[in-house]
Amino acid sequence: MPSRRRFTVPLPNGGSLALGDRTLIMGVINVTPDSFSDAGRLLDPAQAIEAGVRMAADGADLIDVGGESTRPGAEPVEEAEERRRVVPVIEGLAARVDVPISVDTYRAATADAALAAGAAMVNDISGLRYDPALAETVARRRAAIVLMHTRGRSRTMYEDASYHDVIAEVLDELRESVAFAVAAGVAADRIVVDPGLGFAKDARHSYEVLGALDAFAELDRPLLVGPSRKSFLAKALGGAAPPAGRDWATAAAVTAAVLAGAHIVRVHAVPEMRQVVRVADEIRRYHS
Prior knowledge:
Layout: E1 7-10, E2 16-19, E3 24-30, H1 45-57, E4 62-66, H2 79-94, E5 101-104, H3 108-117, E6 121-124, H4 133-141, E7 144-148, H5 166-183, E8 191-194, H6 203-210, E9 224-225, H7 231-236, H8 247-259, E10 264-267, H9 270-287
Parallel strand pairs: 3-4, 3-10, 4-5, 5-6, 6-7, 7-8, 9-10
Antiparallel strand pairs: 1-2
Helix pairs in contact: 1-2, 2-3, 3-4, 8-9
């Protein structure tokens, strides 16, 4: 079993994330009408805030708030609408929970407003490829950032799911994102990387990446993995399971990620996945 390096990721409020002793859980709050998992359930800011408060009480170590669905085939929303969705939720959560809040956005203006409202981290699915100005915003705000791997846009990402060597190519493209962030002034110790399961990857690619997560240790950055309820899991189940019916499959993928060295797992079902992570961490404790 691969070892897991320890990291300390500084946050803009003077706090930090201690990564490596145990796996942290990032809970997902989708404030969108077309989320693949929540289907508009949390469009009302008050409901979204309450859901985030419950997640923190259930053991989430971070809460990730997103205002645009980035599932395959999703249509983009206007920047002003994205801000309108996420900023009140982040403000409300910042006043009621002690865990760090992340904003799931690739836009510099949305990230700036979210960080001003109390977010501490930006979760950028594009790895700074959609809006390069985001790097300067993160640097100026002294925020942490997750750089995820993808190719193309949500509507057409599967058209770019062509690899000669998926592990080597994802590593190379993440390395480019990290280098761009650092060149723009983002401190390297504030960067987390995510190989982007399900993004511009067919099921075979996602399973190959999940099975080789230890290779990403060479980036020398903490690793976030987000398998929760994604369609590649349904392929192993015969393709029939809807997103909300994939939590057992998610549990298997989360276990694999933890045993392979993930520092953070991004999930929808926080109480259930907290149990999964605790057991997987206990296995690591005896075999690493």
